[in-house]
Amino acid sequence: MFINPIDSRAREENSPLLVAEAGGCYRPASDVEILNAAELRLLARVHHGPALQTPTAVKEYLRIRMGTLPHEEFAVLYLDSHHRLLHAETLFRGTLGQTSVYPRELAIGALRHEAAAVMVAHNHPSGDPTPSRADEVLTQTLKTALAMLDIRLLDHFIVTPMQVLSLAEQGLV
């Protein structure tokens, strides 16, 4: 559990977040622990918040979750008919510059979670969120495959450490 110290040092600008350990002792949180706690808070906001009608909360969550990874990952958010999050998972893990994505596996996951819609995301470790031609083709392939199962592809996000690009906002979904 993360807390801020309550003594006068806590009010200093650079005071660390602390982690409670067994026995009531506290220690400064590591960067990984801080990022993991931020990811859990953002996921809770996405999970328990209103229907996902705007991509802002999803973008924040994805940027924290996968923006700084040194390799590509392809993630999926499974949604119900009101666009509430049912489940989130990393479906594929790739190398520095590419990830193989199989529409069949995405469809199987969507059916397993009884999703009415999905949002997908992958990161660009290079830091450039510009979609490649392969990203655009993949988006259309997934959209077509899922449509045959009456599952909507709502968006495909490209994630970098500093920004998240929505292909739906670019008119590419």
A few lines on this structure:
The protein is an alpha+beta fold and 173 residues long. The chain is built from 4 helices and 8 strands. Helix 1 packs antiparallel against helix 2 and helix 3 packs across helix 4.
Largest sheet: 5 strands, mixed
Q: Write the element-wise H/E pattern from the N-terminal end onward.
A: EEEHHEEHEHEE
Derived from helix and strand composition plus strand pairing, the structural class reads: alpha+beta
The overall strand count is: 8
Strand content: 15-25%
The number of distinct helices, counting runs of at least 4 residues, comes to 4
Helical amount: 25-40%
Spans of at least 5 consecutive residues with low confidence: 1-13
Average pLDDT reading? 84
Cα separation of the termini: 40 Å
Tell me the overall shape.
globular
Rg from Cα: 18 Å
Order of neighbouring strands in the sheet with most strands: 5-4-6-7-8
Describe this structure in words.
This protein is an alpha+beta fold and 173 residues long. Helices cover 31% and strands 24% of the residues. It contains four helices and eight strands. The strands form two sheets. The protein has a five-stranded mixed sheet with strand order 5-4-6-7-8, with helices on both faces. A hairpin with a 5-residue loop joins strand 2 (18-20) and strand 3. The longest helix is centred in the N-terminal third of the chain and has 18 residues, at 31-48. The radius of gyration is 18 Å and the shape is globular. The protein starts with a strand and ends in a 7-residue tail after the last strand. The model is unreliable at 1-13 (pLDDT under 50).
